[in-house]
Amino acid sequence: MLGIAGVSFPAEEYLKLYHGKTDPEMVEMLSQCHKCNAHGPDVQLSRCSLCKAVEYCSKKCQSDEWKGVGLDLKIVGNNPHKRKCAWFKRAMEQLPEIAAIQQLFPWSANVKGPREMIQIPNQIELLLGLKGEGVTNGYWREPGIDNAIHDSDYPLRTLSPAYICHGSMFLEPVLPSHAKAWKLPSSQIPHLEFEDSKLKSRIPALHNNDFVQDWTSYYAWRNLDRESPVALRMDMVLTVYYLLTKVLGVVDTSKGATESRRTLKIHFVGAEKELNIIPLFSELALLIPNTDIAMTFFGQACKKLCDVAKVKHPKSLANRSTVFEYTAPAALGGSTLRVKINGQSDLYDSANIALDRPDALIAENAGLFHYMTWQFVYHYAARAGIPWGITEYHMIEVLEYEEHMVQWRDLAMQGVRIDLTNNLNKISREEVAETMGRLSRVQARGAGLNPFMRPGLLCSGRGSLDPRACNGFVLRVC
């Protein structure tokens, strides 16, 4: 499977790479014109000879998409294939490395792909019998029917009565035990407490010299067999670690634990399903020794959780200022983690930075150009000089951001000039000069493939064969 000859292969081979089998309906779904969606046994498709990533039913469709016919090219993110072709080619060149990640885990490499694989999120958890709506599903609790990539797609959409909202374990006064929430055999769990004599052999080594670099090193450090499916949840946690250390550079673990105690403030923006696994972020306290970590989650799902808690669950954890705390064993650096859920507003605003300036902003599977509220977050972060790292499903999006984010930067600089003219924020010319200088140096930089992407790829669809994955690709926004 890893011996892919170049990057040109039919939909059948693509399905074998992604899902372990060929499904005729999935082949038909993939085998359609990227421009007009034409498909079926009578449709003859030809591949773009340059990128090998997209297919067309006719020369007219290929020519129209190359030129961007029908697109408003003034809109950021609307690009003709003439511009995107090189990006698709770069994405296809990632396939062997991405395939290698899938091959690490038997449950990912051999999973049989159901028809619903075309939906987001990936369905491996369902096939393993882990994911469900009920309270007994612990860290695997998710909506049974969830067609939206993000809840904000459908702000008035209601989840099933059984699910209530993301983070619903915090509607209780006490969290379930770590082992119970994982729903896995003890040998497959990355434990956080080691007092039990049976778990002493599972204590990882003090995290020194940047040992954890990818899934292979993480599983080795945690003494886990690759039969364990914890990567299907720990991707959300280890992606934060990767963004902090390798993409943003706000934490340096390459020289081991620091001698002096340090603090680290993280604002996680746009949180949704991450609220279901908040205790798992304790792993950051093990990975970053001798550090007091404060983590605050923001977003529409956070407000909904807190609103439900206030009305129906007054004694719940969600009503507390700090919803979760963890202290790592002294032998592992004794770091602490304190987590808050901000339920004040659906949106992240400048007051969040002014009142509690973070060391970094994080957003996972963000969709920057799909939700324009991200532009406000960019303005706040860029003007304040806050490092911001994100992940996306699709490498093409990361490459688009690198090219077009300069437009957001120009708008942010224009906003500073307007503030000076109107004296809205009573800022001095010296402050303006400092802010403008900082903004002029801001540049979005893609860091490529995320070694902690979630195993199990997502179907691209619409005649496109480029790879996509949850937390698949990383970018430093500012």
TrEMBL record:
The keyword Amino-acid biosynthesis does not apply. SUPFAM superfamilies: HIT/MYND zinc finger-like. Residues 33-85 form the MYND-type domain. One of its GO terms (molecular function) is zinc ion binding. Keywords: Metal-binding, Zinc, Zinc-finger. Pfam families: MSS51_C, zf-MYND. The keyword Cytoplasm does not apply. This is MYND-type domain-containing protein.
